[in-house]
Each structure stands twice: as C-alpha cells, then as structure tokens.
Amino acid sequence: MESPKKLLIINPLEDIEIIKAIASEPRMQMLALLRKQPLNINEISTALNLPQSTVATHIEKLEEAGLLKIEAQKAKKGSQKVCAPAYDNFLIKFPENESGEQSSISVEMPIGLFTDFHVRAPCGLCSAAHIIGFLDMSDSFFNPDRMAAQLLWLSSGYVEYKFPNNSFYESRKIAKLEFCAEISSQTPGSNPNSLSDITLTINNVEVGTWTSPAVAGSEPGKYTPRWWNQQGAQYGLLKSWTVTDDGSFVGEEKISGVSLPDLHLPEHHSIKVKMGVKEDARNQGGFTLFGKNFGNYPQDLILKIYFTEQATRPST
Asked: Which of 55, 149, 205, 252 is the most exposed place for a label (fewest CB within 10 A)?
C-alpha cells in the first residue's frame, strides 16, 4: 500500500527559518530533484552541475530547517550522506485569526532547562553530540552542560520546568492551556514491552496520569543522531496535555476533572510543569523526553496558552 503523502503547513509569521531555507532557487531545485529518488551529494552535484561544496552548504541549510532526511550509508571510501525530502508538499498558510489579535502565545523550552528534578537510574542525558556526565548517575542532572540536553530519561522520579506566564498581563480570558512533548515509556535497558504511568503536575496541582504504551525503538528516529545506541530509545509519541474549563485531557481522552480555575494561573508570574513517574505507579516504565535533535519531531517542550477573543479584565 502506498504510504500517505506528508504535507508541511508553513506559518510565514513563525516559520521564518523554513521560509529562508526555501527562498533559494538552487535549494528548490534540489528538493524537486530529490522528490524523484534519494541521492548523495555527489549525485546532486552532477545532476545540477554545481560544485560539491555548494551543494553541501545548501543541503545543510535544508537539513537545519527540517526539510530533508539524511542517512549515512557506507561508500567505497568511508561513508556518504544520502538525502531525501522529509515532506512531499508544502503549504504556506497565514493564521486564520483575521482580527489581527494573537489568539495564542507559545513558549518552547529545551528539555535540559529543568528547574528541579528527582531521578532514579537508569537515567541520563545526551546532547546532540555526546552523553552528558555519566550514565545512570543522578548527579549528571546537576551538570551545567545539561542545558544542551536533547535526550533525557529516567526510571522513576520527575523533572520540573518553569515557563513564563505570558497570560499575566493579558486582558483576555484563558480558554485553554496546552503542554506538548515527544515522550516514550522506554528507558535504555528496560523491557521494551513495558507501559508507564506518567503524571503531569501544573503549579503543584496534579492534572492527571496518562499511561504511555511501549514505543518500538529498533528503527532510528528521524532526527536521532546515528551515534546513539540502537538499544536506547530512538523516538517517542508526540502527546498534548490540555486543561480547559471542562477538565484535563490527553488528546481527546479526558484524564481528570482538573480545570483552568484550579491552576490559579492569574496569580503567578510563572507556570510550573512537572512530569514524573510516581514510586507507587502501577506501570513503572520510566520515560524518555526528546528534544528537537532527537526522535521524530523537530521540537522541544512547548507550552501554549489560548485566549478568548474578548477582554475580561483590565491589564495591569
């Protein structure tokens, strides 16, 4: 069966780097060429009659923008980069909020910028280039290099992040709070069939628990560096937790009755988000968090606040 076409919807007000990447005739020619079949840099150079150094520079720009899938393959001498498009089609679309007023505000937080933690082995952190500190040593989570972490895992415990509360000076009422992360129940060396009960807490209020299924890790994640151990977690699921006036949800599934008023958002300049596996959880599969340079999705942790269109209180 033919695989479904992948469409990338580009918001020109936010996806500036993607716009810059495709605003080049040679790069668009490369994307058009690669739609036919994957090619290495030498083959692209020959097909487009461009120097290999020029092609390599353009390919790097496209890869940084998340528009290419790059796979290292063995060659007669060393290895070669084989390039393929990450998407079949692009659609440039402006946000539909015609009032000109921003209907939501989002903040993207690197997974290494946690403000508190309590973890148990197996645990660890990785940047896009190397392991940070030592594997299975909780003290590695104190390492200053943790700010560059793109992969984080633990068997039980929690990590907590502090996001700015961008609604504090808003006059509009909050309609929904959304937290999005790529996450897997797997931890290196654990049972790949294990489940994990992952609890989300916001502003010290337990929002609810979601049971993560085991995520297969035998195939490399789309953005996972090839040096990373194939036995470790390769990618996760992109999950969104939302809190509204009607309760808390993961996707369409309601996980608790905790609603927006319970979080007391207007009273705090920051929003604390904690993800953890409790010591008494029924399913103790741990969890792995993926940054934009690991897994299948080019993003870090995202907290998004949605507003109603009408003001309900004066700005301070």
From this structure: 252
What CA–CA distance (Å, rounded) separates 33 from 45?
11
Q: What is the pLDDT of residues 212-234, one digit of tens each?
A: 887 655 677 889 998 887 566 78
3-state secondary structure of 144: helix
Tokens 């953890």 appear where? 276
CA-atom Rg of the chain in angstroms? 21
d(CA 232, CA 30): 33
Q: Is residue 276 exposed (0-12), middle (13-18) or buried (19+ Cβ within 10 Å)? A: buried
Torsion of CA 140, 144, 148, 153, to 10 degrees: 20
What is the separation, in whole angstroms, between the first and last Cα of the chain?
58
Angle in degrees, 0-180, between the axes of helices 25-34 and 41-48, rounded to the nearest 10: 110
CA-closest candidate to residue 146, choices 126, 130, 120: 126
